[in-house]
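Below is the data:
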Amino acid sequence: MAISNKPIFGRAVIFVIYIFALLGFSYATNNEYGVLAAESSTEKENFCIIYFKEFGSLPEEKSKAHFHILLDNSKLDWCENHPESDPNSKVVLLSKGNCSISTQALNIQDRGGKGVFFITHSGKVANIDINDTAAESINITVGLISENSAERLKAMENTVTVKLFAPHSINFDFSLLVIWIIAMITVSIGAYWSGLIRFAIFFKEMNSLPGGEKELPNKPSVRVNTIEESSLNVSTYAIGGFVLCMGLMLVLLYFLYDYLVYFIIGLFVLASILSVHSCLEPLVLKIKGSFCKADFRCGGSSCHIDFRQVLLVSFAIAISIYWVIIRKEKYSWILQDILGVAFCIHMLKSIRLPSLKICFVLLVLLFFYDIFFVFVTPYFTVKGESVMEEIATGGSSTEMLPMVLRVVHFGFDPLAICYKQFSILGFGDILVPGLLISYCHGFDLVTSKKRIYFITTIITYGIGLLVTFVALFLMNTAQPALLYLVPCTLLPPIIIGWCKGELPTLWNGFKVVQPTDATRYPDVQVETNESAPGAANEIPSMPSTDNPTSKNSVNPSEISNEGSGERNYLLQ
């Protein structure tokens, strides 16, 4: 990784947390249910229900529904009649029992009941046994309610009255719009910053070669004082191993979620501290003044303190620890998203892939990885749930992985209580396409004054994310976002590069190699310049394709070394 100026511990934390970041995906549900509006003398609350239309219909508006007293008979089995209970004109809360729900509902109806709701763990209609013969005689409301909702109903004080209604769902969730905006801003900033750093380091590497300053289409707009390389030196085999490790970690999470989730939360806190510091440091260092620094004697040596750095580190630690404290509160998603955005931006500007070939291999492997763990794994799990969905939503655990953007559902939909509490988008759906977009921006800066690759991939990323959200509604199930994001972001730069004749350069990338490092790079073309004086400043011309000894073509944007007898190291 191109983070050589960071301590080894910091790099290890970033590497591990990056793997877990890629385990996330976009998830949301949208089903048409009903609403149970409960009121007591001290409180009011709405609950989501699933009701069977074949038994009895519900009004669409709350104002047209009638109040009924709620009777808790969850400890009674209404497969038989219970004279001690009086369900007359009441809505009854029952457990599933040892017979069909039709039989129990018919017994409630015969005693004058107005409705019956069965407490269920799964909330799936397919798991409910309905006796068709008995169902023909039922004309009261029959439905399901979750165990959690039932417990909250039982906890309400005094007599509880309920209204039952089934409003039309407004098929638009503003939380998805917020997630789209956050993702677009994060990718744009991270990729833009990454491109500037890549180009600044590349420019510095070029100028470190003999021959002085080289002519490039742009000049760096940021200063780099690191010893990082302009891109990560990684092979396709390493990418394959990385994706394999991700799959193994995902399986471990599935079986050991209750234990590993706390380990990941700890890693997320450490990564958040590093990321917040990294993102805010350029802004904080712009603060000037004598009060910012202090020099004093410490024993026999002089000590230097930068109060700006002290305050920034303290702030990063405090905000990360505060998130741990409030992470189970309803409003914690705001701070989690802020930390998540900082993390994604930091990762995008720190990890710079060397070529489109590496980007292609990574995105294609993760494309199939996402599809497998969302669509294929339900055929192998006991509960029929996808491994990805179970991990991303936390399953039955009270803890959720923090490696996602979370936005609470909001809007005008009266059935919002029936949705998952949050819409989520995994960090991987930001970072994976973002690495490609970052590379495209760096390539733009090195080769052209225009940012055609960067702008195009940003736009197509936004389109791919919108397509993902549309698929959520149309298919009514969890979607692997990379199924749509990978084609939308990967194909446009390939097509543009082919049309402009830049595809070979775009595909293989560019890297400045010092003469002493030539043996580390087998793809480097080594040429001996023994031309006459005055020819040293010329830009190398494209070698003839008829020359069988030429292993790599020379990009005109790559500049030769000066001086007679020196060697030019050109990598494409």
Observations:
- The first helix runs from residue 8 to 21.
